[in-house]
Amino acid sequence: MQGSANLNLMIKAARRAGRSLVKDFREVENLQVSMKGPGDFVTKADQEAERMIREDLMTGRPTYGWLGEETGGADGADPTRRWIVDPLDGTTNFLHGMPHWSVSIALEHKGEIVSAVVYDPAKDEMFWAEKGSGAWLNDSRRIRVSGRRQMTEAVFATGVPYAAKKTLPAMMQDLARLMPTCSGMRQWGSAALDLSYVAAGRFDGFWERELKPWDVAAGVLLVREAGGMVSGLRDGQDPVEDGALVAANEGLFEPFRKIIRNA
Q1: Are 12 and 59 in contact (CB under 8 A)?
Q2: Domain span at residue 19?
Q3: Contact 71, 16 (CB under 8 A)
């Protein structure tokens, strides 16, 4: 696997955390679970995975800043670089014994994502990218977004808001407008993996609202390095910081985005 020292550090950290999570996943009925909020769970496994990732990354790069789902943000001595980490994206799937969840790690430099790793431990799939070097799966397979150009052939992915969140009405409008135009919709419960699947050509596009930077930072770079396009849902929105985004291959991006924006 070719990559920078930072990327190799990220991959090593993701694999270590992934091994720990897989052990807990096999004993999911015995996990200790606490409530963070309606439908938003945190497990001992989740917290331990973030601790391990932080230990590995901050030992290797102690001057970098940090933003993690479980532990929040911390400034580093180097103000230009920051790790953005979701140790377990797809926690609800994990808790229900469904093998579709991931470890997501991104490196931000001067406000731009420059390295990305999304690891699916259950399937042992490592998606990774560096700015200007393409997107890859596992050791040597380069990935690209799909080549489909017709909406009627396309399969799109999204995340449906839970607990009657404020964007649920807009999501229902999205579905009503989009579903008659495309081949299918999927809601699989891990935004990081959904974006990785867009990068690999498995999904043709993805959109969602009310996401956090750690949900999408790595996936956004993967899509772009795989030849896809990503933007905020509205003009002026930053897809990572504002957490409302649309992503697709170049041929479908504009008609797809138009449908979502008009919802």
Answers
A1: no
A2: 5-143
A3: no
